[in-house]
Design brief:
The chain is an alpha/beta fold. The strands form six sheets. Strands 2-1-11-10-12-13-14-15-16 form a nine-stranded mixed beta sheet, sandwiched between helices. The N and C termini lie far apart (51 Å). The model has no long low-confidence stretch (mean pLDDT 91).
């Protein structure tokens, strides 16, 4: 097997009519998924989509998205999974930058996408899932195609996917992932987490995100069943875990906080869960403990990013876990902690430095951006992650925070994630994010944005005092703002910079 486009054919041969995918709209076996994606591949080839040309997917989680993803790969196309939360302007940039040949989207967004293509002469085909739209081809037409499935050889080191980063400054960058990187990540993650054909995985992680992709395709590799939610809702998640007797739930920290706070938790049957996973952002140890106590199963931490096609570190399911750690490197992958001033040197043992990654999962580079590629990947193959971390002698990595999110107050480095972990343990806090505010004397101060837990009335003074007993003086938040919600990405990762823009623009 040379790439992710070969997963369904191999799994259909092994697992046949076993259920592969469950969605609100349709349930499909491995055989059905394989056959439907063949039809999509035949249609794309008949439409003139040449191998190596990008095909963009811009829609919420649904069975059609999964079929289209595998169909595009079987046609030899490069998949461009697009975050459905992008604005039309951001979408237009991505489609133009990657030079997409076709874009597949949902009915409610089709009219907007069709309008965008008027300024993109190289993109002349819009396919719509669900309801038909003027100027778009209904997805149902692709599923009736009886043409030959193209016979495209897969070079494992050629581009498989162009996944665009969130673009915290300027335009997003397209991380080009090889077939080897995507398949390696899915297989290594499935191995580390002990996936088998007996697994039933409930997830609301967005399919366009690398974490969501690894969850879906890693489960398919093992022959397990994916119960895919269109979007996350805590009550519905608990219902699906109970109904399908799920063995595994995969999510981000905010999801676990909401599950633990939901009224349906008391009646939910979580006894079939054998483990859960959490990534995307640091999680409070107190949240881990509460979920493990309620579910009776371990919550496995992990870390990853778009530039490595998914995970880079996690805990092996059967190994002793180290609370607060994102685990050890995936098989065949190297990690190191580099000195913050000199990347050629390792940081002193136990001291924070930049987490670096090297191995087959590292991206080929940023699409059409050699300057950014050279800034991110060193000549010897080590890739900058932008995360500040420490590592034990046994290889367990602890993320301190994002380098760009670091707050400098009176010359001291304050890492928001550390402050967030402390405040999240307070019973009056449901969700919390910490960011900098300018200060004439100290340069920056830490401000905590807090969503109160239901039925509580924690005060600013109370929370500052709580943090004061657990953090060094320079790390304590000096301000607390109470908010109704925290802005989040499509995966549920809290966007600290958006809070700063809202309150301190």
């Amino acid at each position: 097997m040379n790439g992710p486009g070969e997963i369904l054919r191999a799994s259909a041969a092994r697992f046949g009519d076993r259920t592969a995918l469950v969605t609100a709209g349709r349930t499909l076996s491995f055989t059905e998924l394989d056959a439907l994606s063949d039809r999509v591949a035949a249609w794309l080839a008949g439409r003139g989509v040449e191998p190596g040309r990008p095909v963009s997917l811009y829609a919420q989680n649904r069975w059609e998205w999964v079929v289209a993803y595998h169909g595009a790969l079987k046609a030899g196309a490069v998949v461009n999974p697009v975050n459905v939360m992008l604005t039309p302007e951001e979408l237009a940039f991505v489609l133009r930058d990657c030079d997409a040949a076709v874009v597949l989207t949902s009915g409610e967004q089709a009219a907007t996408v069709v309008e965008l293509t008027r300024d993109l002469p190289r993109l002349d085909t819009v396919v719509t899932f669900g309801e038909a739209a003027e100027g778009a081809v209904p997805f149902a037409e692709l599923l009736t195609c009886d043409g030959p499935v193209p016979d495209v050889g897969t070079d494992p080191d050629s581009p498989s996917t162009i996944g665009y980063t969130s673009g915290t400054t300027g335009h997003p960058k397209g991380a080009v992932q090889s077939h080897r990187a995507v398949l390696w990540n899915c297989a290594a993650t499935a191995t580390m987490h002990g996936r088998t054909a007996d697994d039933v995985v409930v997830t609301a992680l967005p399919a366009p995100h690398v974490y969501g992709n690894v969850v879906i395709n890693g489960t398919f590799l093992a022959g397990g069943t994916v119960v895919l939610m269109e979007r996350f809702h805590p009550g519905e998640t608990l219902r699906l875990i109970t109904e399908h007797r799920a063995t595994l739930f995969e999510g981000v920290p905010a999801m676990y906080s909401m599950l633990l706070a939901d009224a349906a938790l008391d009646q939910a049957d979580l006894s079939t869960l054998t483990r859960s996973t959490v990534g995307g952002q640091t999680i409070a140890t107190s949240t881990i403990e509460r979920w493990e106590q309620r579910s009776g199963a371990p919550l496995i931490e992990l870390w990853g990013m778009t530039e490595i096609a998914g995970l880079g570190t996690t805990h092996p399911v059967h190994a002793p876990r180290v609370p607060g750690s994102i685990g050890v490197s995936l098989p065949g992958v190297q990690v190191r902690i580099a000195d913050l001033e000199d990347v050629t040197r390792d940081a002193e043992p136990g001291q924070p430095g930049e987490l670096m990654v090297r191995g087959p999962i590292v991206m080929l580079g940023y699409h059409g951006n050699p300057e950014a590629t050279a800034e991110t990947i060193e000549p010897d193959g080590w890739m900058h992650t932008g995360d500040i971390a420490t590592m034990t002698g046994a290889g367990h990595v602890f993320v301190v925070d994002r380098r760009k999110d670091m707050i400098i107050t009176s010359g001291y480095n304050v890492y928001p994630a550390e402050v967030e972990r402390v405040l999240a343990a307070h019973p009056g806090v449901a969700l919390v994010a910490v960011g900098p505010v300018p200060d004439a004397v100290r340069g920056e101060l830490a401000c905590a944005y807090v969503v109160r837990a239901a039925g509580t009335d924690a005060t600013e003074e109370e929370l500052i005092a709580y943090a004061g007993g657990r953090l060094a003086a320079y790390k304590r938040p000096r301000l607390v703002r109470f908010v109704d919600t925290l802005p989040a990405t499509s995966t549920g990762k809290i966007m600290r910079r958006e809070l700063i823009k809202q309150f301190h623009a």
